Amino acid sequence: MNKDNLKRRVLTGMFGGSLLLLSALHEVSYLAVFVLIIFLSSREYFKILGSNGFRPNYNLGVFLSVVIFITSFFYASKGSLLGIYFLLIPILPLVCLSALYSSNNSETLSNVSVTFFGILYISLPISLLNFIVFDGNGYNSIYLMATLLFLWTSESAAYFGGSLFGRKKLFESVSPMKTWEGVLFGLLANILMAYLIKEFIWIGHQTLIYWVFFSIVVLISGVFGDLFESLLKRNFNLKDSGNKLPGHGGFLDRFDSFFFVIPYVYFYLKIIDQLT
Q1: Residues 163-203: pLDDT tens digits?
Q2: Is 90 exceeded by the pLDDT of residue 135?
Q3: Which region holds residue 202: left if phi is over 0, alpha if psi is between -120 and 50, else beta?
Q4: Mind giving me the DSSP string for 90-144?
Q5: How many CB atoms lie within 10 A of CB 251?
Q6: Cβ atoms of residues 210 and 249 within 8 Å
Q7: Of 1, 47, 55, 255, whose CB neighbour count within 10 A is largest?
Q8: What is the spatial distance between Cα 276 and Cα 272, in angstroms, rounded to a whole number?
Q9: What are phi and psi of 26, to 5 degrees?
């Protein structure tokens, strides 16, 4: 990566990261920003498929993705997990019915499948985030902000550590630039971040061991999320999913790991809650 592109990447990351953290401080700004993220990510996903021989229901897919998140937000704010199950029931029939109005009926199964998958891949994982920020006592963004800090820390450390010392490829057939050394740097950086969170950011909120395991969950699931999106892009011979974020590519490029991380963070929090 040349210096100009690295500079754009750093500046975009700093600005976007600060905006995301600030938006997490209040539930209204949180809702607005994540609706925008889902909308733009879904558009990129369906646009990529539409440019590569598929005919997904673009408008319905984007619409349902946004509606699922907004609806689950209000369910979560009332402390009810019913919203997720309630929303899952009509999604598949709606996507299937939309195929009746498609001008191309020769590949109905593949077009319905990729439409439905786009909703599962982007909207449902982030919708679980609503049940993390609403903890039964109102809106609480600590775990969202911790997830973002661990994810950005591990990705940045993995990138620079892998660039300087990377030798052993992690998954060369999918992402030739990712290395085991980069993952190790990400792990070490996340452990340091766990210590900083414990001692200086949310003092006394949880134990150091709690935050270390939290960071490991984020690291591992984030790596797999990044690899999966790399696999999708490789299938379509794409370098980036878009160009909306200078130095990063598109919104799918920036939030691919996040989509995978949220379900595992949710289950980690629930498991710990049951054990304590």
Answers
A1: 889 889 998 888 888 899 999 999 999 999 999 999 988 87
A2: no
A3: beta
A4: HHHHHHHHHGGG-S--TTHHHHHHHHHHHIIIIIHHHHHHHHHHB-SSSB--HHH
A5: 23
A6: no
A7: 255
A8: 6
A9: -135, 145
29 neighbors 22 (Cβ within 8 angstroms): yes
Residues 122 and 43: beta-carbon distance below 8 Å: no
Distance CA 112, CA 132 (A): 30
Domain boundaries, the chain: 26-139, 141-276
Span 143-167, pLDDT tens digits: 999 999 999 999 999 988 998 898 8
Tokens of 114: 């990729």
Angstrom distance (rounded) from CA 139 to CA 24: 10
- Residue 32, number of CB atoms within 10 A of its CB: 12
**Amino acid at position 38, single letter:** I
Please report the pLDDT score of residue 256 as a whole number.
Answer: 86
Instruction: Give the C-alpha separation, 149 to 228, whole Å.
Output: 21
**Buried residues in 102-111 as b, exposed as e (16+ CB within 10 A):** eeeeeeeeeb
260, two tokens: 């995978």
C-alpha dist (Å) from residue 111 to 57, 93, 105: 8, 14, 9
Alpha helices in the chain, H assignment, sequence order: 3-23, 27-50, 58-77, 82-98, 108-118, 124-133, 142-165, 180-196, 208-235, 251-275
Q: What does the pLDDT look like over 213-222, one tens digit per residue? A: 999 999 999 9
Q: What are phi and psi of 140, to 5 degrees?
A: -145, 110
Residues 37, 93, 84, 118, CA torsion sign: negative
